[in-house]
Specification:
heterodimer; A: alpha+beta; 2 domains; 5-stranded antiparallel β-sheet; 4-stranded antiparallel β-sheet; 6 helices; 17% helix; B: 536 residues; alpha+beta; Methylamine Dehydrogenase, Chain H; 26% helix; globular; WD repeat (chain A); DDB1- and CUL4-associated factor 13 (chain A)
């Protein structure tokens, strides 16, 4: 006879000393965990509810004396952001303490463009007072809190925007024409003009340092190579593009924030149709900025909301609003992709979390694991009606909700009308363009 | 030298093969069913994503299997006979006591308390504590690890059943008129008056539901976390005290005096399953922990094993059983009179045969058998107290600290309770197949039979009618051959009629369909003036 029974000694299965950790034993046998799927579903539901409970994205506000018109990230300094306002005030904000670090006085009219160079030591500003000013950003611990401009350049026309190369020492200003400058010369190195209308925004390509895209009030998006003397391409849409942002991870793609409330993602090599149309805003999109990860971008709109889109998502993943926030003129993603900063008409810069329910601060490994598990559960059960309803729901103020509903009604009516017209015409005489092509007028080489 | 090397290699390879086969068997357990078939999927992107998911699932199953193979701290118990002459069922408890270590031999004991017996028993899910209820009003909580009675109370009235709630901190007792819930100090916490005189109690741990069946055959579900009655079902099948919860899906099984076994969930007033299992009253019922096997015992001297996936009988064994219980490893204990028999399916074939026997002192009547979780121990409640015997190989040797920890501290117990409450399942999740949650419900389409099949069916019915015609002999010329023929034709025509009517209808339908198709030919602008399609 051979016999053995289970016999566990307490010493083997418990901790030796009281300050040791408790010993943990695992057995992954499915028979020990009945109804594991139901348990998982309940956990997913709880995770979705917790996401809603902890979904408090607003971190804080920073106040100017006038409406914020433009912002610039300091690529070398994570917690600093430059903001310019309509009264000509430029400030460097410390976003951790939400205090002004430096003031850059000098502009008499609205500041329209701000940009910093790659190492964050120099700042360029331009404005409606027809002046470009170049500043040296002082190091952190100097006691004087206002800075004098290094030099300035006065022109005949107002400036609308400025952007610095990602790599190199040149920057471009736009207004009546596109001017390329470097930090040493007192006159533009090169100038471009294509058409007579005002150019309103400019962005350098993050991959190719000499490539830049501008948008103009003749509803065009134009691409320039600053090494050559003539522009490359021009795309004319039905409505004006207010701002452009390049995808930093896929630098052949850019997204245009359009006056019609949509954002259009384009591939530089194929401008005859948009790769994606991002709809949701109820009014004109004023500014756009990509996350450094290239997976998301943030938009600010005239409808008083900030939205976050996935780079390949047709609808927004998140909407931010507060009752006091007015029309948003500029938005920026922070350099670590975890915050969003918006500047609006109500004199305030607002700091938001990019993930509304993310836990801030250093996470313990157990906390991290827990968040990952919850995320996986939500992802697994996101299609089930109960979970979906909770995850999708966003509370909106009535005016925004109504405006969005009205917009939906209008687009639906237009679609129906088109359908009817098609039904009552000779077959093949009316062809519907896809939304990705519909707003494009023509492409000019 | 080289020959030797190749030999060694070969030995190594065969060993590796054996290991991989063994692992494959284990992986199957963790895969929880086969992989989905993506061949019909046309969306390449989705296909890629899903196959990646499947890959991850397979990898995690493999990791779990490897963990089981190499890293589990303890091995299961066993009892093996030497040679073909010795039989395992002839080995006595005394023989086992001599062979095993001291701590295990402490698990063999008898507690003689004749004045309050018979006793019913219940264990906590980690096997740390036992509740014993003497019929004459004795309730005891025993710490099984240290063999210390934690608390004893005398309620002074009949106690029919006792059951632990989520852990040892609360237990419910079915007493003479009402069910009472007691705290671990033996202080009465609740009295559940609306359930009536309860015969049998069961606790659904994942749902925090206390299920009870009362004298009038009413099944009640009480949510003990909120104190609300979730379900109140009149079974209408008479008084019974044969109740057991299927641990796999939390469906409650009831055995009735008519020989039927019914299965219930709190959200429907009709049984999910009603199956005739025995020709006499059902005396005991037990579910295998994997939920696919049910054992029933009938008063007509039969014990049956059922496959719960097909609802078919797998095995019929002779014998009475007053009480049945499955262990964690799938051993089946049957108790009748003063005799305990343990059956086992060697090598998991679901073919149960004798494994161990145990006879109590003559005159002891067994009322309740219960395997202690995570131990090789069988608890016996009987008419003279309670006993505990060793059944090697019955318990799960490796516990999971997050599921049930036999060495749980007070703090761990508290944390566990919080987690259990957070993961509390709603009563709607009780269903026959719990893996259905989160899956797509496929629309079931009734298949239309072909014309050939319809004709064959018609002919078959006509033949049946023809064979069945049996003319009575009648007087006064009513039995003339012509009349008989007419009658016969009438009967056949009557049998034919429903088929012909169906055919007519189908024919008309097809004509209608044609008409609709014609309408489609109209120019698009005129279609809105066309007659609306009739709902078919």
């Amino acid at each position: 006879m051979k016999v053995k029974t289970i016999s566990r000694s307490t010493d083997e299965f418990t901790r030796e000393r009281s300050n040791d950790l408790q010993r943990v034993f695992r057995n992954y046998d499915p028979n020990l965990r009945p109804q594991e799927k139901a348990v998982e579903y309940v956990r997913a539901l709880n995770a979705a509810k917790l996401e809603k409970i902890f979904g408090r994205p607003f971190v804080g506000a920073m106040e100017h004396n006038e409406a914020i018109s433009c912002m610039a990230k300091n690529p070398n300094h994570l917690k600093g952001i430059f903001a310019g306002s309509e009264d000509g005030d430029i400030r460097l904000w410390d976003i951790t303490s939400r205090r002004t670090v430096r003031k850059f006085p000098g502009h008499r009219g609205a500041v329209r463009g701000l940009t910093a160079n790659t190492d964050g030591s120099r700042l360029v500003s331009c404005g409606a007072d027809c002046i470009i000013r170049r500043w040296t950003v002082p190091v952190e611990d100097s006691s004087d809190d206002s800075v004098k401009p290094e030099d300035f350049h006065i022109s005949k026309n107002a400036y609308w925007g400025v952007d610095h190369q990602w790599k190199g020492d040149q920057f471009a200003t736009v207004g009546a024409q596109v001017d390329i400058w470097n930090h040493t010369s007192n006159a533009p190195v090169r100038s471009f003009q294509w058409g007579t209308d005002t150019v309103i925004s400019v962005r350098f390509n993050p991959g190719h340092p000499d490539l830049l895209a501008t948008s103009a009030s003749d509803r065009s998006i134009t691409l320039y190579d600053i090494k050559t003397t003539i522009p490359i391409k021009k795309l004319i849409m039905q409505t004006k593009t207010n701002s452009i942002a390049w995808n930093p991870m896929e630098p052949m793609n850019f997204t245009a924030a359009n006056e019609d409330g949509n954002c259009y993602s384009y591939d530089l090599r194929k401008l005859n149709e948009a790769t994606m149309v991002h709809t949701d805003h109820a009014a004109a999109v004023m500014d756009i900025d990509y996350s450094p990860t290239g997976r998301e971008f943030v938009t600010g709109s005239y409808d008083r909301t900030v939205r976050i889109f996935r780079y390949n998502g047709g609808h927004s993943r998140e909407i931010y609003h507060t009752s006091r926030m007015q029309r948003v003129f500029c938005v920026k993603f922070s350099c670590d992709a975890s915050y969003v900063i918006s500047g609006s008409d109500d004199y305030n810069l607002r700091l938001w979390k990019a993930m509304a329910s993310e836990q801030l601060g250093v996470l313990l490994p157990r906390e991290k694991k827990r968040h990952e598990y919850d995320e996986a559960l939500k992802n697994r059960y996101k299609h089930l009606p109960e979970v979906k309803r909770i995850l999708r729901h966003r509370h909106l103020p009535l005016p925004i909700y109504k405006a969005a509903a009205l917009r939906r009604t209008m687009t639906e009516a237009a679609r129906k009308k088109e359908e009817k017209r098609k039904a009552h015409s000779a077959p093949g005489s009316i062809s519907t363009k896809p939304l990705r092509k519909r707003r494009i007028v023509r492409e000019v080489e | 030298m080289s020959v030797k090397a190749t030999k060694e290699q070969r030995v190594k390879e065969t060993e590796e093969e054996e290991i991989s086969e063994d692992l494959d068997l284990k992986v199957k357990k963790y895969l929880r069913g086969g992989a989905a078939n993506f061949d019909d999927l046309k969306d390449k992107k989705l296909k890629g994503q899903l196959s990646h998911r499947e890959f991850l699932h397979g990898a995690s199953a493999k990791a779990a299997a490897k963990y089981e193979k190499w890293l589990m701290p303890s091995e299961g118990g066993y009892l093996e006979a030497d040679g073909p002459v010795e039989k395992t069922w002839r080995i006595k408890q005394e023989d086992i006591r001599r062979e095993v270590d001291i701590s295990s031999s402490r698990n063999q004991h008898d507690v003689i308390l004749p004045e309050f017996s018979p006793y019913t028993l219940d264990f906590t899910s980690n096997g740390q504590y036992m509740a014993a209820a003497g019929r004459k009003g004795h309730l005891a909580i025993v710490d099984m690890k240290n063999m210390i009675p934690r608390r004893e109370i005398q309620v002074g009235e009949t106690v029919r059943d006792v059951v632990f709630l989520q852990d040892q901190s609360f237990f419910a007792a079915a007493q003479k008129k009402y069910t009472y819930i007691y705290g671990q100090e033996g202080i009465e916490a609740h009295c559940l008056k609306d359930q009536g005189a309860v015969l049998k109690l069961q606790f659904l741990k994942n749902h925090f539901l206390l299920a009870s069946i009362n004298k009038f055959g009413q099944l009640h579900y009480e949510d003990v976390s909120m104190g609300a009655m979730i379900g109140n079902i009149r079974t209408g099948l008479g008084r019974t005290d044969v109740m057991q919860v299927n641990p796999y899906n939390a469906v409650v099984g009831l055995g009735h005096s008519g020989g039927t076994v019914t299965m219930w969930k709190p959200t429907s007033s009709a049984p999910l399953v009603k199956m005739l299992c025995h020709h006499g009253p059902v005396s005991a019922l037990a579910f295998h922990p994997n939920g696919h096997l049910m054992a029933t015992a009938g008063k007509e001297r039969k014990i049956k094993l059922w496959d719960l996936r097909k609802f078919e009988v797998l095995q019929t064994l002779p014998g009475h059983a007053k009480t049945l219980d499955f262990s964690q490893k799938g051993l089946l204990a049957c108790g009748t009179g003063s005799f305990v028999q343990v059956l086992s399916d060697f090598s998991g074939t679901q073919n149960y045969s004798r494994y161990m026997n145990h006879s109590m002192v003559k005159g002891y009547k067994i009322s309740n058998l219960l395997f202690r979780p995570y131990e090789d121990v069988l608890g016996i409640g009987h008419s003279m107290g309670w006993s505990s015997i060793l059944i090697p190989g019955s318990g799960e040797p490796n516990f999971d600290s997050w599921v049930a920890n036999p060495f749980e501290t007070r703090k761990q117990r508290g944390e566990k309770e919080v987690h259990l409450l957070l993961d509390k399942l709603p009563p709607e999740t009780i269903m026959l197949d719990p893996t259905k949650i989160g899956t797509v419900k496929t629309a079931r389409k009734k298949e239309k039979s072909t014309t050939k099949e319809i004709e064959a069916e018609m002919e078959a019915t006509i033949e049946a009618v023809k064979d069945g015609i049996n003319m009575k002999k009648k007087t006064k010329g009513r039995s003339k051959p012509s009349k008989k023929l007419k009658k016969r034709q009438e009967i056949i025509a009557k049998a034919k009629r429903p088929f012909l009517e169906q055919q007519m209808q189908d024919g008309q339908l097809s004509i209608k369909k044609q008409k609709i198709n014609e309408e489609v030919e109209l120019p698009k602008s005129l279609q809105r003036f066309a007659r609306k399609k009739a709902a078919t």
